[in-house]
């Protein structure tokens, strides 16, 4: 299966930090609109374990950077992933 999972980062520094969390994956930094950056993780293997590993890395990154959430795009679907332990409302 080919394609990618895209994760939004608010700036280049935090995008690079996320890239560091994703060292076990085939990932790259991509400049996006309005100063944002995306990290594209290539999907060259079974999607389920890949998603689980990427979400675990993103959870660690959100906590380390003290970010409340990020958007993740998989195919035509966009998800909002909140930082673990974040109390909403």
Helical fraction equals 25-40%
- Using the coordinates above, name the CATH class: Alpha Beta
When the domains are counted, the total is 1
Q: From the structure provided, what is the oligomeric state, counting identical versus distinct chains?
A: single chain
CATH topology: Alpha-Beta Plaits
DSSP E strands, number? 5
Morphology: globular
Question: How does this model look, in words?
Answer:
With 89 residues, the chain is an alpha+beta fold. The chain has a single domain (4-82), classed as Alpha-Beta Plaits (2-Layer Sandwich), CATH 3.30.70. Helix content is 33%, strand content 33%. It has a 5-stranded antiparallel β-sheet. Helix 1 crosses helix 2. The longest helix is centred in the middle third of the chain and has 19 residues, at 47-65. The N and C termini lie far apart (39 Å).
């Amino acid at each position: 299966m080919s394609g990618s999972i895209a994760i939004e980062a608010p700036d280049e520094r935090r995008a690079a930090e996320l890239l560091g969390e994703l060292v076990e994956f085939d990932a790259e930094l991509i400049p996006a609109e309005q100063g944002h950056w995306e990290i594209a993780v290539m999907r060259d293997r079974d999607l389920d374990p890949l998603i689980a590993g990427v979400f675990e890395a993103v959870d660690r990154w959100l906590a380390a950077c003290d970010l409340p959430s990020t958007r993740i795009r998989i195919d035509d679907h966009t998800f909002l992933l909140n930082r673990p332990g974040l109390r909403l409302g």
